[in-house]
Amino acid sequence: MASKFTDANEIAKFSSLYEDWWKNDGAFGALHKLTPARMLFIRQALGNFAQRGAEIPKPFSGLRILDVGCGGGLLTEPLQRLGANVTGLDASAEAIKAAKDHALIMGLDIEYRIGDLSVIPDELNQFDVVIASEVIEHVPDPQSFIQEIYKLTKPGGKLIITTLNRSILSLLGAKIFAEYLLKIVPVGTHDWRKFIKPSELNSMLTNAQFKLETIRGISYSVSEDEFQLATNPVVNYAVSALRC
What we know:
Number of helices: 7
Order of helices and strands: HHEHEHEEHEHHEEE
CATH superfamily: Vaccinia Virus protein VP39
Helix content: 25-40%
Strand order of the largest sheet: 3-2-1-4-5-8-6-7
CATH architecture: 3-Layer(aba) Sandwich
């Protein structure tokens, strides 16, 4: 069911691809390649929360994290392995089934919920970190989405977002080349008009009483066939923000 936090067409689109979530060469292959860069940014952004020492195998132990729009669990699982207590949330029942099935195979005990932000129990300030990765460009009302996340984040907690900049280069790279020429993501995955400029996202965060901390670009290296953190947020980018 759609709401101001979800779009019925978007839910149906990703639900139809549920069998591909854990296929490196499937519809979410590009997302698999993006995940190491996403995780690197998350680890850097949460450095002040992490337990110190290179010998610590689970530096996120004790952290409560909400992974909004978790899909099949591509970020949820590595976050859990780092010791966090993660709740994965997605509006697609099919995606959640894929996430649960894979977690069972991997021996991971992860709480997954079907629905939008409104299904999270009405307990304010319950998460240390909320992550919305490759999600906000798919929601009908990004400002309301961020404001609802604020209610669920502890004071001093963090919001991490990765998304796409609405630029000429993102139209060429993330839409035309990725979907129609290279065909590394299914046609129709993105609506360029819904991409969000960093300045627009910063305004939304400020309006919701978050303070922008870090912004990094994420660029694709053709020679290395991988995504890497970069300075310029011209196409993909990641931000971390502190709840004031």
